[in-house]
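re: ur question from the group chat, yeah i did fold both. here u go
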Amino acid sequence: MTFKGWQKTSLIEYPGKVATVLFTGGCSFRCPFCHNPGLVLAPQDIPDLSAETVLSFLGDNRRLYQAAVVSGGEPTLSPDLPDFFQRVGRLRLLRGLATNGSRPEVLRALLAEKLVEYVAMDVKAPLDWEAYRIAAGLGREDGQVLERVRESIALLSRAEVQVEFRCTAVPGVHSAPDLLELAAQLRGARRLALQAFRPGPTLAPGLSSAGRYPEQILREVAVQIGGWFSSVEIRA
């Protein structure tokens, strides 16, 4: 397995643990507000980082880390992901996955084989095809994607591992009613994180200069939905 990026140390990508974070290239979505356009559009232009290099580093420094998280891009596109997680497990590290939920069959296999202890799923918009199509940058012919996303949500909602659902709120894309609708559709899940979009490089250049999403709106939404989840976190 090869990676296209590596954040050697993170204190936020695996809750409560010191983690290393790997980024895969390629993605099944084209979210206009994506902050990793190079990983999505031109992964071939980014040098490869081998799994062997990562595993050797972790083996030499295992006392410094508690977890390894694979993000993207979309990691479930890689057929070598299960093998990598198996090898991470042999180092007695926890394993985390950040996904868009577009491949529920991969999630199901990882959970069945006990290859992950934590999954964070980005939910792009309320579970309405037109809203999701726009937020995920999909074509009208991709209607089956929403059913796969729904399947992943259902699968993770009953999983016995740590699960967090995330939504990045973007100015002009997500209104307060949108966030409330999405939260209602995820109601009963354990953890929900509402993340404020921050200006910066984006897949759609026009969004690069969009303002930061108002934190006050997120806090007002969080108050209304607080009883629906075990934890609602604002990341602004």
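okk and heres the other one u asked abt
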Amino acid sequence: MVELAGKAKNLDAAKALLAQSLDNGQAWAKFTEWITAQGGDRRQLENPDLLPAAPLVQTVPAPRSGFVAAIDAAEVGKTGVDLGGGRAKKGDPIDYGVGIVFHAKIGSQLAAGDPLLTLHANNQAKLDAARARLLAAITWSDSPVAAPPHTLKIIE
């Protein structure tokens, strides 16, 4: 994007510019500016203990041994909304304390009982529903599965 915006002549120059921006703090300053402009509290970036925390936290174990073959991202997103972490419609409030943390990704090998994901919720019924929905959103394989590529296609 840096190269496409005309800020660098080639990919190597763009990488150098980005590294410099990270090293000198310019990228961090811009990021905190964005957070503040959107009503966020930059102190939470430097002290995560200031972030809201859900009262219910549950680590969900892998239900079986095997390899994570697929994760239905749409179901994960809808589950996050159902927990309160997103909006179903304009104007819905967002609960910044809830969420989903995956401990495994596509291609990961797990034994039954290994930590699969952690749910953060404010309501036991929502937590239970999220747990069931997310377990159903994961496809397992008995054989190794290649992780998907990070870049699917470059559009020029």
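fwiw on the second one: The mean pLDDT is 95. Residues 84 and 91 are 13 Å apart (CA to CA). idk if thats what u expected
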